[in-house]
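Hi support team,

I submitted a single chain yesterday and got back a structure, but I'm not sure I'm reading the token output correctly. Could someone confirm the output below corresponds to the sequence I sent? I've pasted both exactly as they appear in my results page.

Thanks,
R.
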Amino acid sequence: MTRLATARSLATSLLALALASGARAQVVDFIETWVEPDMYHCDAERIFPWAFSSGTGTENDQDLDRDGLFEGDPDEDTDEDPIFSSIQAAIDHTLTGGIVHIPAGGVYREELTITDSITLRGRLDGRVVLDGTCGSLNTGIDVTGEDKKVRIENLTIRGYDIYGIDCDDSNLTVVNTRIENCATGIAPPNVGLAFTLLSSHLDGCSAGLAGSGSWQVADCVFEHCGTGIAIFTYSGDASLSISGTKVLRSDNVGISMVSETGGVFTLTAHACQVSGSGARGIQLSASEDSSLRVTASLVEGNGSDGIFVENIDGCVTGVHRAEVVIADSRIEGNAGDGLEILGSGSACGDERSVVKAAIIGNSIAMNGAYGIRGDTDCEFACGVGENQISYNVSGAESSTGGPYCTLSDTNNNQGS
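Hi R., thanks for writing in. Yes, this is the structure output for that exact sequence:
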């Protein structure tokens, strides 16, 4: 059987499997021999994939020749599947809800644009490489559709001048994808749209994730980025839920959430590690009613405060829901304070400002300044209890205490 016949047979089998399972999606396949991505040179001959658009045609069939069709005529009644010479061509001919399969390993020097709800799926071993290092390419994958659902799986994306993935106005899910040495690894969708990042690795980007919205991150690694994860808004609210994730050796802040106009932010981190950042490990700067929850996590060896929170406090007599929960975590060996909470102060006039805090069951030790520190405008209204607070350079804590809570009456074990 010829290579072409074998490839077509595989594509037909995949389509039959999709139809048998009741799938509506069109299946687009790539077939090519693996080429080791780290061994190529920019002046090497380009490796073109074999691509099949299986199933019914689309409204873009008239563009087949322009997009690099090797074989097959969409105007003829034929059983032949058209074969494309680029990933983009396959995307352009995939129906809404379709899947572009790229089982072929190789280096693809393309800038992809996705305008519809599709899945782009490479190999589990990451050997499908989108590469922007030759020719100063700007964006690896640009999702330009509005209110679509796009899923990207099993790719390596590297060396793009601006974004590895850019998505403004559609829901985006990225799974098992490695993004290296891009200015911004992923610019997730705007507020009101969903973004999920799973089992992925971002390395050497100026910012791993940067933008605003509601993000879910699980089982990922960010390392050697300028800022690992950065959420910022000039208006509106934002949230980040992160679990099972390591943010390592960021040049600046590991995880940063900053609102320029007082948006309500929610940051929840569970079973995470934030280590070796050049500045703060975790930073939340927002408005009252914002909240921070860090549980079962390790925040260590960062170049400033381990965890820094500011301006989320409410006034004593006011109604507020702002809270800080730090539980069952280790905050150790940071150059600044272990945990610092700063109030907005003047916003409350003559009243005291308050952050409701539950700081329980932690090891807060060997930090370069205070273990726990508040400022003169902010009190902890709740419990700071059952912590091991020891061997911090400036002592255990420097809080106003008052009627709200003090370390001495909440069963903390204070070391030297």
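A quick pointer for reading it: Confidence is low (pLDDT under 50) at residues 1-41, 43-81, 398-411. Let us know if anything else looks off.

Best,
Support desk
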